[in-house]
Design a protein that fits this description.
Structural class: alpha+beta
Shape: elongated
Order of helices and strands: HEEEEEEHEHEH
Low-confidence stretches: 19-25
Number of helices: 4
Oligomer: single chain
Helix content: 10-25%
Length: 177
């Protein structure tokens, strides 16, 4: 298990389940920005991993929405973007390739920019911030300290959202086929 000492004194470390008034409580490290890269702690279906700075082209904050027949949940997430045009097949839904049928709908709506990899970058890894949060100011400062060339951005939400007019355009393009 990772400890604060693993990442060095100048690392930005975020723990799960810490309350400011409980000084003795030690939560699991969920996220860290350190000299070797960005560490993501283990999540339900994802093992702990460190993404090296050489792979990272941006650190992003975004929202992920999941739906079930009875409810919809929105999660704040943090991730890293890497250069590439094809999503890896690992990670959560926001880091997996989209089905070709979905890509066809986005192209039909005139929004090929929403297809992962269209801008030359892909979401390489991410975690939902559930039971923990990052401070954008502290995150930006830590990233600037360890990798000044890497920006902290507001990434696109997942799944990509279309306006009504874009959805109608996609529907019309599907009818023409």
């Amino acid at each position: 298990m990772a400890t604060s000492e693993t990442f060095g004194a100048d690392a930005y470390v975020v723990r799960a389940g810490l309350w400011p008034f409980r000084h003795g409580l030690r939560g699991e490290i969920m996220f860290a920005v350190h000299s070797a890269g960005i560490y993501f702690g283990a999540a339900a279906a994802s093992p702990a991993q460190t993404v090296p700075w050489s792979r990272i082209c941006a650190v992003e904050l975004f929202t992920e929405t999941t739906s079930s027949p009875r409810s919809q949940s929105t999660y704040r997430c943090i991730g890293v973007r890497a250069r590439g045009t094809t999503q890896p097949s690992h990670g959560g839904p926001a880091a997996r390739p989209i089905p070709e049928s979905s890509a066809r709908i986005l192209r039909g709506a005139g929004r090929p920019d929403l297809i992962p990899g269209a801008d030359g970058t892909i979401r390489w890894a991410y975690r939902r911030m559930s039971g923990w949060r990052v401070s954008r100011a502290r995150l930006s400062a830590a990233v600037a300290r360890h990798a000044p060339q890497v920006p902290v951005i507001d990434g696109p939400s997942w799944p990509p959202a279309l306006t009504w007019s874009e959805a109608l355009a996609a529907r019309k393009s599907r009818r023409r086929r």
